[in-house]
Task: inverse folding
């Protein structure tokens, strides 16, 4: 059985000496890099394991395969925003407008903040598959939370069901569009861009803002 | 040399009997379908030729390979909008606001109107390559045209260079985000959605609208 000859993983160790990351995180980071630079279809599990400095067999100790790596990376682009959205929905102190603004701002920071543009993976044909139902469910719940915050604003309260669904799509669409903007200009400072996008989202929502 | 055994192309014929499309269009339609459903990396030129009902050798009569097919499909998602943008920029009768609205509306119709969601191909890692410089150039020119129309509106005229660039990114981002929205909900009627997106774009632009 061949090894890479260079860095070989230690099946029982949970910590990699060189990066300090747990092996699981190391594998996810390697997959994120390879999926976004070489492409998902062109990346083998062997390449992911090698990039993470371990044997392929060791990788299978942590992940069942390439699909599970992709599923976990996709979920990492939506799960933190859904958790924030739930906290904001439960917060009855702040106005709906300012909570919606904060969700937008934070979501843009998440989508643009990582080293790799994982949002770009949303459009892979493979992601339609049942295997990624978890990601689709979390993304749908996140969009529903945007809709609930929108409905709680005064312009949102005046909309009918279809009008609210359309406006939710447009706001959520603007937030996800930062994936494309970020790809064209990855060196843009994220914090100011996230605030400007949240401002624009509230203008779409019909809320007087700025 | 193997053939598919079923439908075999006629190298000298320019017209396919079954679809009535010229062979070149037939190949582009086949590539659009396969690239967006099976994925670009997983699609072979042989599969494209077979889907179009012709031999692989016949395909090479029209296209140098998979990359040229992808390049042409990508350009078809931006070139018509750039042509419209140039006509609108030269039209000094209509207001900048209404010309910007029309560009947005028409661009959304183009991005959502085809049978296949070609915009989804923007995010392929392969598309970064020099081979696709033509697409990137047309897309950049289209974005610049959005910026020029924005600068001609009264809120746009009040912005400094960086402010205008950011607002252009957000408007252009919203328009391209329909790629993601369309993917989630491909059966939505396009015309009303295109108008609603153009309305939202003008709200981002700071133009009182509706």
Result:
């Amino acid at each position: 059985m061949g090894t890479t000859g260079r860095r070989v993983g230690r099946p029982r160790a949970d910590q990699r000496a060189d990066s300090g990351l747990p092996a699981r995180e190391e594998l996810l980071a390697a997959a994120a890099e390879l999926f976004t630079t070489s492409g998902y279809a062109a990346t083998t599990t062997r390449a992911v394991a090698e990039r993470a400095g371990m044997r392929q067999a060791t990788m299978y100790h942590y992940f069942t395969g390439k699909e599970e790596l992709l599923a976990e990376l996709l979920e990492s682009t939506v799960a933190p925003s859904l958790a924030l959205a739930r906290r904001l929905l439960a917060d009855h102190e702040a106005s709906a407008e300012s909570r919606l603004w904060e969700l937008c701002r934070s979501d843009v920071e998440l989508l643009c903040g990582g080293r790799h543009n994982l949002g770009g993976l949303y459009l892979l044909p493979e992601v339609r598959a049942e295997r990624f139902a978890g990601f689709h469910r979390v993304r749908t719940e996140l969009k529903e939370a945007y809709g609930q915050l929108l409905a709680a604003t005064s312009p949102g309260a005046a909309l009918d069901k279809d009008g609210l669904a359309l406006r939710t799509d447009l706001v959520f669409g603007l937030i996800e569009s930062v994936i494309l903007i970020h790809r064209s200009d990855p060196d843009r400072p994220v914090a100011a861009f996230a605030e400007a996008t949240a401002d624009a989202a509230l203008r779409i929502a019909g809320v007087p803002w700025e």
